[in-house]
Each structure stands twice: as C-alpha cells, then as structure tokens.
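Database export, one record per block. Field names are fixed; values are copied verbatim from the stored entry.
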Amino acid sequence: MAVESPATTLGTAAPGFTLRGSDGRMHRLHELRGARGTVVAFICNHCPYVQAVLPRLLRDARALAPLGVHVIAINPNDAEAYPEDRFARMVEIARDWPFPYLHDETQQVARAYDAVCTPDFFGYDAALRLRYRGRLDAGRKQPLEDAPRELFEAMRRIAEGQLPLPQQYPSMGCSIKWRMA
C-alpha cells in the first residue's frame, strides 16, 4: 500500500543517531553530515518505489557531493518479517553506492524522524535544520522525462545559502514495515 509523507515543520533539528553501515562500521550523523547540507533518505532493499528512484538518487548524490551536500540512506524495515530487507542484502546491493547505507535495526531512528514510507527524504542545511521534506522528483515508479529534480534543486539552493522553493511535494512509497509490538 502506498503512503505519502506528511507535512513537516521546517527548521526542526535532525535527530542524532549511531547506526551500523553496510560497510560493517558504526556511523554517527555528525560524522556523515555535509559541510553545506545533508540528505537523510529512508529507503529499503525491496520496495518497488525505492528500486525505481534508486538510479536517480545515486545520480543526484554524486552531483550533490561536490556542492558539500552528503546523502545518508537508512533502512528501517523489519527484516524478520521482510527477509529481502536483511542486513546481508544491504551489504550486497550498496557496494558501489556513493553514500553510506545504514541499518536502523531498532527502528528508533525512523520514529525520531517521523519517517513513514520508503523512500522518505529529509533535507537539512549545514546546521542540520530541516529545510526540505519531499520527493526526489515527480516520477514515482517510472522516471518522467524532463521532470524537475526537486530534491537536487532544493539541496543545491540550501548549499548556496538559500531556502528551497516553498512548494514541496510529499514523497510516496511503501509504508515502513514496523515490527509488531
């Protein structure tokens, strides 16, 4: 079932975290942040929406890096109920990614961010204040020719010290697969 990310209060601080990456190391937000901006992307291995946007996310992450904007991807899904989202699979698929892929095994980080779907994008300025929460672009499961690169453009503006354009469209994807209580 597709879920849209809710509107969020801009200006809030990014919740800190320490999570294990697909490289086997522990990573902290403050060590991964970009000098001019940071994207925190909640994604997973199996979601068709994530699989559809992944090539464009990789492209945009590579283009944002020279601007001082880093991308961090976090998998919050319950891997016991959804084995395709297990850590070993994260290691396999993220070998050549230009950003870290972290495992939120307890799901506490996703809850702290109020993430609801995969993909769910949060764009922060250099001070780790939320300036963008929205979609990568208008292509959900299919890329749209000539679609504006909404996340990229928002983060480019943030890196230049500007605010992103006020119109921010929600991300849409599969609901996060929460562990049963």
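Remark 1: The longest strand covers residues 69-75.
Remark 2: The radius of gyration is 15 Å.
End of record.
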